[in-house]
Amino acid sequence: MKDELFAELEQSVREGGAILRGKMPPSRTFKMDPVDVKNIRKRLGMSQTSFAAAIGISVGTLRNWEQGHRTPTGPARVLLQVADKHPEAILETICAAD
């Protein structure tokens, strides 16, 4: 590795450590609005069991989301955002799969 690249990487690691210790503010932050999973499921008129099966997760995971013990991330979060904004798309997809 070239010295210049190594120095840049080293500086980045030092900045990351300072941010984690609270000695330096991050250069950017991301705020994600919470997903109201229970409300989305109820608006779709589905039970926990059927909703969990429809989006490919366990009922336990769904319950953890609904009770606030865990939060959906990644593709599951995106799918829930689609269900929130375009419930007809989810219902059409679920009905087409049956």
Describe this structure in words.
This protein has 2 domains: 1-29; 37-97, 434 Repressor (Amino-terminal Domain) (Orthogonal Bundle). With 98 residues, it is mostly helical. The longest helix has 18 residues, at 3-20. The mean pLDDT is 90. Helix 3 (48-55) crosses helix 4 (59-66) and helix 5 crosses helix 6. The protein has helices at residues 3-20, 37-43, 48-55, 59-66, 74-85, 87-97.
Protein structure class:
mainly alpha
Helical content class: 55-70%
Which of globular, elongated, flat, extended, rod-shaped describes the shape? elongated
Kindly provide the radius of gyration, computed on alpha-carbon positions and rounded to a whole number of angstroms.
Answer: 20 Å
What characteristics describe this protein?
mainly alpha; 434 Repressor (Amino-terminal Domain); 6 helices
Provide a concise account of the structure shown.
The protein is mainly alpha-helical. It contains six helices and no strands. It is elongated.
